[in-house]
């Protein structure tokens, strides 16, 4: 379980110690593209208070096939055989190794929750669903919360069935679609009209109404004004914050 309503951004955007004085959580992005050295992640953990929480994105070798443009930021050299084995939750050594690396990153950060973000190209085909079911049924979760962010034309009933059967948190932008796991909410806000969007106070008050009654939720902003928006949302919820403001 998590503390009620963890608010943060997708990536720090400020020095870690400064960020952690003002917000309670961050979603680590580097673990998706090219996981840092474990010593680096352990150092991040030491730089912030004990109650500060990290979530992290699972390594792209699990979710994205090698043709994804995100692989341009991958430093690990893959052979052609490894490129064929990567992504889409395939039952391959590459995917299994990527999960072990992701697990090690979660341990170094003392994370409670891992996000699996899928590309729109990961469609609800019979093969993809079978791979996803096998992966989440067989991996060692180490008591982690696992969030799944499907994109593209996924039928809501299919998503709900998979989240129920596989014990997954349905990750959404709540202004785009509602989650099928409302008591285990993981919101990622990308900007209502693109990345440069800044949320108005009334919109953030609407967001507050979308939170589960249990207040068991993560809320991460992923827009150019993410720090300002996160701080304003935190203020609306009445969370304590440092008196100093982060300048935009």
Automatic annotation (TrEMBL):
Coiled-coil residue spans? none
Pfam families tied to this protein: DUF72 (PF01904)
Q: Which InterPro entries does this chain map to?
A: DUF72, UPF0759_sf
Spell out the protein name for this chain.
Answer: DUF72 domain-containing protein
From which source organism is this entry? Answer: Larkinella knui
